[in-house]
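Hi L.,

You mentioned the student needs an example of a multi-chain input paired with its predicted structure. This one should do, with 509 residues in total across all chains.
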Amino acid sequence: MHLSVSDVSKTYDQRGSHVLALDHVSLDVAFGEFVCLLGDSGCGKSTLLQIIAGLEPASQGGILIDGRELVGCHPDTTVVFQEHGLFPWMTVLRNIEFNLKARGMAAAKRHEIAARLVETVGLAGFEKKYPHELSGGMRQRVGIARALATSPKLLLMDEPFGALDAQTRSAMQAELLRLWAAHRSAVVFVTHSIEEAVFLADRIVVMTPRPGRIGRIIDVDLPRPRDPTSEAFVHHVKIALETLHTPRALLAPS
Amino acid sequence: MAHRHLRRIVLGLSPLALLLLVWHVATVAGAYSSVLLPAPAAVWLIFVDSWPDLLRHTGTSLVRVLLGVGLAFVTAVPLGLLIGRFRPVEETFDWTIQIFRCLPGIALIPLAILFFGIGDRPAVILIWFSAFWPLIITTIFGVKNVERTLFKVSRAALASNLMVFTDVIFPSALPSILTGLRLATGAGWLTLVSAEMIAVKSGLGYMIMYAQVMFRADQVVAGIILIGAVGLFFDQSIQLLRARLCRWQDGLVIQ
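Structure written out for the whole complex:
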């Protein structure tokens, strides 16, 4: 699967005035690639993710998946939401089954897949728990398991670890890389943490706000697992930091 | 756990016991003539002696209220789900609902008698009417409070419209719907007893009116006690239902 963001702009109507959230954004993501959208709040990174997911229409331009214009949501794409988006009245198992049920899979088959995924994300023994009985990190594991259930070719993640404490967060990052290595797919991961982006991504798309544009794309050619204290790692963090804080006029055109 | 149950029962019954005591003292002191205010013992005798009659009237009333509230549930909840979900449906029905929900069911008794005569039909229809509005309003409220993200999750999952209703909107709105059911049974029961005093020749309301005409204050009070007891029974049943169906809320909300 190949994702192509083709000249996408997005304007919002906000109390009568037009707000330009995304300004002519183009981006290509190949299958198997891990791409982070990095930027401060208001840079349009979440909006871009919603458009790629087919949850919001672009005002201009469009999304191509394997060369075909995206209309609505794509069956090979799944989304992991900020604050997990779990159904509070469903147990862990039923939450994971949801996407499969929506595709009309028979109950026995989806139990089987969900039960296996519970193991994969390290939640064995918690199948019958409700989301509020879990810690933040465990909830997000459920969210990821649900997203993986349909074996997506494109996994979209909207600041999935934003609400977690630092320790849980770094554990979840390592976990995500492990899952990504096992369930090869393209990942587009939204974050405002530079370290997170450098730790995870093959490529970092640094976005700048008002209007949301791509400032620079940074290739991260470091072997995994990455050591956040290594010189190369810190070097990449520096580049990203500079891009985030450099006035747009100084950036090379992307 | 057993300790908490015991405490609940003792605390819950204490105001009622106090009331009973005051009542007893008042009759012993002769505050009113016993024709007007029967002694607790006299009322107790009614329960002992005429329990088949009481049971029959209570049964009749119960069937009517269950029928009327049941009818309200199967009509108000689906319509409420649609109104809460689809803006144009809401825009269509909003004003109508706001007008009709302000009419007390009791005010419609004369019309109900004109249209449906005397008997079960006007009673059931009046209960349906009284129970319909609290149910539809709480259902709409429940749907509107479904977390927005969950709709996105459903869309991204390619869930059908039907599945969104059965697996997302309904369970999410269920606690609110059950609150509505609690209000609806209360309203239905209130309307029923009033309706029975006028539009029907059986049931607890009728029994009380008839006893009044016969100067049987003891029967009147027995009827009042039964009305209250059934009201409490309904309320507790729905609470129990809610505890069973909405177990996922344990620890999330104060119940």
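You could point out the following to them. The mean pLDDT of chain B is 91. Residues 161-198 of chain B form the longest helix (38 residues).

Best wishes,
N.
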